[in-house]
């Protein structure tokens, strides 16, 4: 947890005669406060950071700027911060939409956290032939916002990715994917790829001409031929990730690493 993200409601501006607006548009008010009540965040402050009254914490407002606050009060139920300054914009996103066949619940949390921390703009979790139908009944799907928050706090970001659930493969590919491809990039034509172990072109070879704006990765068993052909029919190019067959989480991190180098 490299950043404590708070909802806008946690911040309480107090009227002060010493309120100034900096050149970058950030406000600094000596009596501006924020209150932290989340149990995990409080435990992190006390047990991991070992912070107390007078110490400075790195904080951010969900969907907004990043800054600092000084602990003015700390007890079992809350931490009150004073001298709050929010003056730093969150980092830019990677500029990529990642479409992922719904993975095993066991790895869903980690994948959503990692994709969020790395800066993916839009995450789509979709159905596929090799996606176990029981995955859609997992209670973890109701905790996606929690996993996103963990990823944001890890990656020192405040802007959550858009998340879409697509429970029907064919309607999603035919009706929704073309517009996602078009809207995900300002380049013409936009480039979308599906990672496929039997593709003739490698991801690295394709990337020489520019990184794609949409990346599609299948379930553990990959996509069946019908699904690959349907994706190709809407302009998606199949690319390989080398000779090794990777787990979903390894493939996701290997691909996204291209944007970070």
Automatic annotation (TrEMBL):
Residues 93-258 form the Ribosomal RNA small subunit methyltransferase E methyltransferase domain. Gene3D superfamilies: 3.40.1280.10. Keywords: Cytoplasm, Methyltransferase, rRNA processing, S-adenosyl-L-methionine, Transferase. One of its GO terms (cellular component) is cytoplasm. InterPro entries: Alpha/beta_knot_MTases, RsmE, RsmE_MTase_dom, tRNA_m1G_MTases_N. GO terms for molecular function: rRNA (uridine-N3-)-methyltransferase activity. Its EC number is 2.1.1.193. It comes from the Bacteria. It is found in: Cytoplasm. GO terms for biological process: rRNA base methylation. It catalyses: uridine(1498) in 16S rRNA + S-adenosyl-L-methionine = N(3)-methyluridine(1498) in 16S rRNA + S-adenosyl-L-homocysteine + H(+). Specifically methylates the N3 position of the uracil ring of uridine 1498 (m3U1498) in 16S rRNA. Acts on the fully assembled 30S ribosomal subunit. Belongs to the RNA methyltransferase RsmE family. This is Ribosomal RNA small subunit methyltransferase E. It comes from Moraxella caviae.
């Amino acid at each position: 947890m490299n950043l404590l993200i708070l909802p806008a409601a946690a911040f309480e501006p107090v009227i002060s005669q010493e309120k100034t607006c900096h050149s970058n548009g950030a406000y600094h008010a000596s009596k501006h406060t924020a209150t932290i009540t989340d149990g995990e965040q409080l435990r992190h402050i006390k047990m991991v950071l070992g912070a107390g009254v007078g110490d400075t914490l790195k904080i951010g407002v969900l969907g907004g700027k990043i800054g600092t606050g000084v602990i003015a009060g700390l007890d079992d139920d809350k931490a009150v911060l004073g001298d709050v300054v929010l003056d730093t914009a969150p980092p830019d996103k990677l500029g990529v939409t990642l479409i992922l066949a719904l993975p095993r619940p066991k790895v869903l949390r980690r994948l959503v956290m990692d994709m969020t921390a790395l800066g993916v703009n839009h995450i789509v979790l979709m159905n596929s032939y090799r996606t176990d139908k029981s995955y859609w009944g997992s209670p973890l799907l109701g905790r996606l916002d929690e996993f996103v928050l963990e990823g944001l706090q890890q990656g020192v970001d405040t802007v959550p990715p858009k998340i879409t659930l697509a429970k029907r493969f064919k309607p999603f590919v035919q009706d929704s994917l073309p517009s996602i491809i078009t809207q995900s990039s300002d380049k013409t034509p936009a480039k979308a790829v599906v990672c496929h172990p039997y593709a003739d072109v490698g991801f690295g070879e394709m990337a020489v001409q520019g990184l794609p704006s949409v990346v599609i990765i299948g379930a553990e068993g990959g996509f069946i031929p019908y699904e690959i052909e349907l994706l190709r029919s809407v302009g998606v190019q199949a690319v390989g990730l080398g000779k090794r067959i990777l787990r979903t989480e390894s493939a996701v991190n290997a691909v996204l690493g291209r944007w970070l180098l």
